[in-house]
């Protein structure tokens, strides 16, 4: 059955791969599933047709036959549940490892991504506020709190819990947003972890596919 995802018609990051369709593309590439992409403009995202797919008027969405999903956590989980390659097998031996990999997906989205988004928003949307300069170090330190903990847990392991999983995919994509801040470089093991994710052939294909849409075009 054909899978169709949505992505920005004009990406604010100009193809750096930070838009969240990249993590869905990456998951589909990891499990070797072909997909089509429907591009949506910022105004179309808030129109009834798109709101029927995504109640918050965002990208990405995921359509497969009668099924329509939004939220990258749910989409990547769905892909990982239906295709081998992103979660340990649900056998007697693998069930606990599978549950832990799913836990890392939630940790990436619920515990690590929020302070990183707060920092991105503080830099993008609050720079002109009189209190911005005073607040920014506090926001940065909240990111560091999480990275200290994540870095301590990862140690010198290759991935968060054994083999690469959907948990790593989600964590790497969440951490990538920190690159321009320089904060990720303060944690050599996390920088190397992100680089390992980016070196995966499936990631490279996903990145190239989104870049091909936006490179050289004005961002929206
Ligand atoms: N929690 C959502 C976040 C989706 C999201 O923030 N999408 C961004 C693009 S990366 C978007 O559509 N932004 C435009 C807007 O919110 O109007 C998910 O993980 O899917």
A few lines on this structure:
The protein has 220 residues and is an alpha+beta fold.
SSE arrangement, N to C: EHEHEEHHHHHH
Bound molecules: glutathione
Rg is: 18 Å
The low-confidence parts are none
- What's the total count of β strands? 4
Which strands sit side by side, in order, in the main sheet?
2-1-3-4
Number of helices: 8
Biggest sheet: strands, sense, closure? 4 strands, mixed
Question: Secondary-structure blueprint of this entry?
Answer:
Layout: E1 3-8, H1 21-30, E2 36-40, H2 48-53, E3 61-64, E4 67-70, H3 72-82, H4 95-125, H5 132-154, H6 166-176, H7 188-198, H8 201-214
Parallel strand pairs: 1-2
Antiparallel strand pairs: 1-3, 3-4
Helix pairs in contact: 1-3, 1-6, 1-8, 4-5, 4-6, 6-7
The structure holds glutathione.
Task: Describe the protein's architecture and organization.
This protein has 220 residues and is of the alpha+beta class. The chain is built from 8 helices and 4 strands; from the N terminus they run βαβαββαααααα. It has helices spanning 21-30, 48-53, 72-82, 95-125, 132-154, 166-176, 188-198, 201-214, and strands at residues 3-8, 36-40, 61-64, 67-70. A 4-stranded mixed β-sheet has the order 2-1-3-4, covered by helices on one side. The radius of gyration is 18 Å and the shape is globular. The chain starts with a strand and ends in a 6-residue tail after the last helix. It binds glutathione. Residues 19-20, 45, 57-59, 71-72 line the site of glutathione.
């Amino acid at each position: 059955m054909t899978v169709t995802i949505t992505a920005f018609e004009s990406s604010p990051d100009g193809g750096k791969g930070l838009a969240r369709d990249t993590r869905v593309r990456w998951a589909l590439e990891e499990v070797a599933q072909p997909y089509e992409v429907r591009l949506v403009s910022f105004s179309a995202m808030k129109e009834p047709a798109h709101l029927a797919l995504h109640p918050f008027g965002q990208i990405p969405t995921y359509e497969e036959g009668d099924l329509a999903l939004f939220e990258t956590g749910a989409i990547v989980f769905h892909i990982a549940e239906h295709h081998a390659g992103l979660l340990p097998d649900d056998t007697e031996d693998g069930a606990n490892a599978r549950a832990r990999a799913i836990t890392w997906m939630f940790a990436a989205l619920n515990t690590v991504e929020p302070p990183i988004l707060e920092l991105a928003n503080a830099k993008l949307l609050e720079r002109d506020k009189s209190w911005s300069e005073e607040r920014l170090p506090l926001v940065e330190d909240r990111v560091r709190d999480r990275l200290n903990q994540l870095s301590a847990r990862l140690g010198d392991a290759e991935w968060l819990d054994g083999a690469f999983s959907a948990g790593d995919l989600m964590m790497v994509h969440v951490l990538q947003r920190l690159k321009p801040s320089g904060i990720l470089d303060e944690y050599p093991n996390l920088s190397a972890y992100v680089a390992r994710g980016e070196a995966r052939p499936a990631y490279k294909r996903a990145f190239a596919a989104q870049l091909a849409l936006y490179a050289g075009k004005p961002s929206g």
